[in-house]
Amino acid sequence: MSRRIPAISFGVALIAALAGWPGGMPAAAPLGSSELKTVTAELHALSDEQRFDGVVEAVSRSTVSAQTAGEIVALPFDVNDLVPKGEVIVRIDDARQKAELDKAKAEEARARARASDAQANYERIRQLIEKKVVSKSQLDRAEADMKSARAQVSAAQAALEQAREQWEYTTVRAPFTGVMVERFVEPGEQVQVGTRLATGLSLENLRVKTEVPSHFAARVRAANHARVSVPAGGWLESDNLTFFPYADAASHTFTVRVQLPPGQHGLYPGMLVKVAFSLGQRQELAIPTRAIVHRSEVSGVYVVDAEQRLHLRQLRLGREVPGELTVVLAGLEPGERVALDPVAAGIRLKQQRVGTTDD
């Protein structure tokens, strides 16, 4: 079956514009003595890709809640602000927690002092019992007092750690770098343990969710590789794919999650991107991208026939592939030669048209 598109589909005016000739153009013209650089259209073993729409998602999305009670005194960030990891996002009045912390510190210091006295008393009585000055029961009591004092120190230390923890809970910090998407409190509000404060999502740990038709699912799973388009151009490669083990009953598609490499690549949650899955290889006709001329919505090439004459040919193009090549879906046959420089070919065609008219 021929891959050519009838020349009439160009339209007379558009063909004239492509050729750079205001009054129209001939169907073909000889190249002349100075040869244009040409390339032969060939079949290439290219990756068989299927592309689907995908939506960017944040892997890390969390809601922080109050772990102590008190009044909100500061909210440094608002909704949609970028918050660096470790930055303070909520401050709670810490007067009560600070007083409890100071009290716990004092109790811990007293417990240590009592333990030190009990230790010294035990050592003194132990030395005296060796001289048989005191009874064994006095040593036993001194040892019991020493152990009790040490236990009180342990209890005081635990209370101190708890008080310090409660005091630290009055300062809420961002668990990761991200964007605050919701805020549930305002300055002056009283919060209790468990009160939701804010929700944020990470911009450095993203994934793309896409739907794959069931007849492609097995091949996509076997390849286990995907490419994701980025706004600035180019693609992100990923071999970290998660396949849902069931198909959607309505659309009969399988959900696939593509984990993106860490970092910010100009992608944000909610964006629509293209996800390309490699399904093996197939033979496709491809030509150098620079040989293609574009005008409005039409693309074409200058074809050189066996008689060394130029023809303008409309093409239906496919995707761009590595090697600065573009796949040709229709309009060209393998083995045909095309001009590598479409601008020079257009000028040559116009000059030859002028020469033919003068003759």
Descriptive notes:
With 359 residues, the protein is of the alpha+beta class. It has 4 domains: 7-46 and 282-358, conserved putative lor/sdh protein from methanococcus maripaludis s2 fold (Beta Barrel), CATH 2.40.420.20; 51-60 and 203-280, Elongation Factor Tu (Ef-tu), domain 3, CATH 2.40.30; 63-91 and 173-201, RNA polymerase II/Efflux pump adaptor protein, barrel-sandwich hybrid domain (OB fold (Dihydrolipoamide Acetyltransferase, E2P)); 94-169, Helix Hairpins (Orthogonal Bundle). 29% of the residues lie in helices and 38% in strands. It contains 5 helices and 22 strands. It has helices at residues 12-19, 95-130, 136-168, 214-223, 342-358, and strands spanning 29-30, 38-40, 42-58, 61-65, 70-74, 82-83, 88-92, 171-173, 178-183, 190-191, 196-202, 206-213, 226-229, 235-238, 241-247, 253-259, 272-288, 293-295, 298-304, 309-321, 325-330, 337-339. Strands 1, 2, 3, 12, 13, 14, 15, 16, 17, 18, 19, 20, 21 and 22 form a 14-stranded antiparallel β-sheet that branches. Strand 13 and strand 14 form a beta hairpin. Helix 2 (95-130) packs antiparallel against helix 3. The chain starts with 11 loop residues before the first helix and ends with a helix. Residues 4-29 have low confidence and may be disordered.
